[in-house]
Amino acid sequence: MGVDTATTELEQRQGRKTTAVVSREMTPVVVVVVGLAGVAHGREKGILGGQAPLPHGRRRLQVLELEDGKRCKAVKNVTGNESFFQGHFPGAAVMPGVLIIEAMAQVAGVLIYRDLPNKEKKLIYFTGIENAKFRRPVVPGDQLRIEMEFLNRRNNFGKMQGRATVDGKLAAEAVVTFAVVEHPGT
Predict the structure, then answer these.
(1) DSSP code for 49
(2) ω before 53 within 30° of 0 (cis)?
(3) What residues does each domain of the chain span?
(4) How far apart are CA 77 and CA 16, in angstroms?
(5) Helix, coil or strand: residue 128
(6) The dihedral sign for the CA sequence 134, 136, 96, 59
């Protein structure tokens, strides 16, 4: 398994660095994705790296299936030791809906970065959420299965439809929009 480390200028000033763990040779691909704004910095041997970790920490996504230019499927194992469960809600832990949407955006980022030229010079900005609906709570012990599919893409902008399920039952769905921009540090 190849390990790729990407450090942004901001992270260097703050004394942090982020690691993306990626393997194309093994199936499934394991990707450590850090922060929604950090779906960034593709590398020759990797799919993506990250920047600007969020205060609630890393998300681990396991990519199950990737159909270039069309769709991506991944899972996130939801564990009770994730810090956001401490206050959401005491005695009745529920994964915040915004983090489900974030996980969907990260899976979308895997698909977008897959064929993106000059990955190291690009950032993907999550630019919008449309028609988000939450159908059932996601709790510790659940395995969140995320499927993202392109609806359309033009140049550096696009729209993807996503579904997150637990045990085959719909937990959340949304359409996310994105923009691919030049990395300001390059």
Answers:
(1) B
(2) no
(3) 2-182
(4) 26
(5) strand
(6) negative
Assign domain 2-182 one CATH number from 3.40.50.300, 3.10.129.10, 1.10.10.60, 3.40.50.170. 3.10.129.10
User: Which residues are identified as catalytic?
Assistant: 88
Q: Look up tokens 């990797």; give the residue.
A: 46
Distance of CA 169 to the CA centre of its chain: 21
Say if residues 160 and 175 touch (Cβ distance below 8 Å).
Answer: yes
pLDDT digits (tens, 9 = 90+) for 1-55: 333 333 333 344 444 433 333 333 333 333 333 333 333 333 323 333 332 222 2
Q: Which two tokens stand for residue 168?
A: 């085959």
| Residue the block writes with tokens 């359409």 | 175
To the nearest whole number, what is the mean pLDDT of the chain?
A: 75
pTM for the structure as a whole: 0.69
Residue 24 in tokens: 């194309």
Beta bridge partners of 21: 3
The answer to whether 161 and 117 have CB atoms below 8 angstroms apart is no
Using CA atoms, how far residue 152 sits from 76, 112, 149, 177, in Å, is: 25, 12, 9, 10
d(CA 104, CA 130): 13
Joined together, the tokens standing for residue 142 give 């659940």
User: Hey, what amino acid is at 162?
Assistant: G
